[in-house]
Design a protein that fits this description.
- This protein is α+β, with helices and mostly antiparallel strands.
- It has one domain: Alpha-Beta Plaits (2-Layer Sandwich).
- 26% of the residues lie in helices and 28% in strands.
- It contains 2 helices and 5 strands.
- A hairpin with a 4-residue loop joins strand 2 and strand 3.
- It is globular, with a radius of gyration of 12 Å.
């Protein structure tokens, strides 16, 4: 599992447009950051991190932090949390 944090843009709409296939979730945080939790193969999650770094064209991504956890299998699909 990877937890990715990208600062200062509304990532939820980007996730919807891109139809990301990884199980997990995305959520805008109160501090302006966006948190993404996703499960999958390491290579797929690294590709996701690259997409997070690029972000949508209207975004200014300041940083993407990754943290790895053991696979839990607890996500059925990808959801936008509010």
């Amino acid at each position: 599992m990877a937890t990715c944090k990208a600062s200062d843009f509304a990532f939820s709409s980007f996730v919807k447009r891109e139809h990301l296939a990884w199980p997990g979730w995305v959520q805008n945080r109160e501090d302006g950051a966006v948190e993404v939790v996703a499960e999958g193969h390491r290579s797929d999650l690294l590709a996701l991190a690259d997409r997070l770094r690029d972000g949508p064209s209207e975004a200014e991504v300041q940083d993407v932090e990754l943290s790895w956890r053991p696979y839990s299998g607890s996500y059925a699909g990808f959801e936008v949390r509010h």
